[in-house]
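Q: Sequence in, structure out?
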Amino acid sequence: MKYEASPYEFDEELDLALHPVWFVDELHGTPVPDYVSSSWVAEKVTHGFCHAAEYLSLPRCKGILWRDYKHLRFIITPKAVESGEEVEEREKRFREKLNRLINDFGPMWEEYKKELVELYRPFKEFDLKKASNIELAKKIDDLRQAGYRMCEIHFIGMYGSWSLFMLFREFCEGLGIDVNSEDFNNMIRGHDNDSYRSERELYRLSRRTIDFNLSSIFELPAEEVIPKLEKEPNGREWLKEFNEFIKKWGWKCQICWWVTSPSWIEDPRYAIEKVKEYLKLKETPKLLDTEKAVAERERSIKKIRAQIPEDRRETFDLLLSAAHHADIFSEEHNVYCEFPNDSVRRIYLLELGRRFVESGTIDDVNDIFYLWIDEVKKIAFWPEKYRLQSLIQERKERSKEVMSKPIPPIVTKKLSPEEAFEYMMKSRDPILIYTIVGEIPTPKPELKADIIGVGGAPGMAEGPARVVLSDERLSEIRPGEILVCPTTSISWTTAFSLVKGVVVDRGGILSHAAIVSRQFGIPCVINTFVGTSKIKTGQKIKVDGNKGAVYFLD
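A: Exactly. Output:
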């Protein structure tokens, strides 16, 4: 075995000998290296996936194995069921679980949300400043155990809701319904959740800046807005409302699983940026018009239901109500699962980082992210004895070299790309197929498109492209543009209110980009693999979300 500090690092020789292909997860990457999170997360997420797959008895997959890939990405492979007899046995238990989930998923998720809130409450209320290093090191271990439980809940919810969606989609396909049509997509959208509620509150805060005659202040760079508001009577009134928002929603982060990104509580500038984005709008964004979304959903349900044979309508109604949980869980789970875990871990690590700087152990508080978690715990007992500057510098130099090289979408020595995706599809793992990896685009030469991907949300749109490679550049988006990016996450939601369409390199039909595009009623093409490399900012393009095609118009 070859690894630097953790068996959860990707060992190319061993891991490829044991598994024919590994898929790079581009949906959950970090723009800068994060040693302290990479293997820790790979360990607990592997546990969560495998625990949930066994709990639900997924027929063809016992979970997903995660590895740390160069401290920048995770690399994953399905734990496939290889015996046909075992598949049959698991299928029976799976059907029993699904039958219960159809009726019980909503109440189950509500109870899980309460459990997760209580799970992280002690960590949020703990007084870090008064704690000793030894107490902080112990708390980090406690956070690891909390992370195990969080991942169990996370992936029971995701596997459960995704499986219900898969069941409904396959039922409709079996009846000849076009699952790429606008009506089908309308049927499964328009469900409120806490992520969208926080967006509505941000939009309300943007309108309050107009009420308070503060719009000109929000033309300043985000980091200058709060200091300026504090000097104005109306600004202080607005900040009271903003601080209440941060108190409720401030544990949100820009990325999931990694601790290199601050929460809004730590750096409210990120929430201010979103208020600034909403101020660019002249009309209420579609996401916030819930009554219209519900009306469109009901019209599409009525239209498609009329096509269903009468003896199948009861099953259709039951599966449709169950499939809605995937739409809700997809956008809501981050608020209760990853975000509190990541933001709390970051706060504890930064407190130790601050103490390491005071002890001369490291030069900058953020250097703690270049240490393995077990190194952090060991050093915490007597930081004054360590001088890690040369080690940190060595890891920074090594990371620069790694970041200068492209990361392949799959790693294999045996399979072609087509065979690799076929291997994934055989696992029938709904999270791999519908979210992290997605379906492989089918060549469509008859369309004469410049880029072919997979339809993520129906519709067509034309406009100038805006290529955004990280959330730090979201403020550059202008109304009416087509967003082109590697992938999106919950921190990108506000941007969808500005754009006419979306093109992403990676993601499946239940990825954030696809779900939120459907919610906003804009076309989306997913899994293009090459969108960000072939499209330039300002270039006029046409997006066909029905056929998964992108055309260059100039």
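Residues 84-125 form the longest helix (42 residues).
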